[in-house]
Design a protein that fits this description.
extended, alpha+beta
């Protein structure tokens, strides 16, 4: 019985670099019939250009699993910390963030 439990375990490694994480304040999601693509973007104040910091490609089944897991975790977070406040514009920050644009 114990042998069967060990067969179903997955050993997941997390390098130091990946463990540090990558900051993103915007996600752009597209899909085709076969996959969902999530681009995680970092917008910087006063910069008219943004960089995709990470791209994740998922099958539709895995995208739905991610959706369910994220929904469940948001529910648990809000139960512990209260509702997450949403901004009027849907949380999409303007490119300038209200900061002056630098000129050379």
């Amino acid at each position: 019985m114990e042998e069967n439990k060990n067969k179903n375990k997955i050993n997941i490694e997390l390098s130091e670099e990946v463990a540090e994480g990558t900051y993103s304040n915007l996600a752009i999601i597209t899909h085709s019939h076969a996959e969902f693509i999530i681009d995680f973007v970092k917008l910087m104040p006063g910069t008219p250009k943004a960089k995709v910091k990470s791209r994740i490609i998922l099958t539709p089944e895995h995208a739905k699993r991610l959706y369910k897991a994220l929904s469940d975790n948001i529910r648990k977070f809000e139960a512990q910390h209260g509702p997450i406040k949403e901004t009027k514009d849907g949380g999409i920050p303007p490119f300038s963030f209200g900061a002056p644009t630098a000129e050379a």
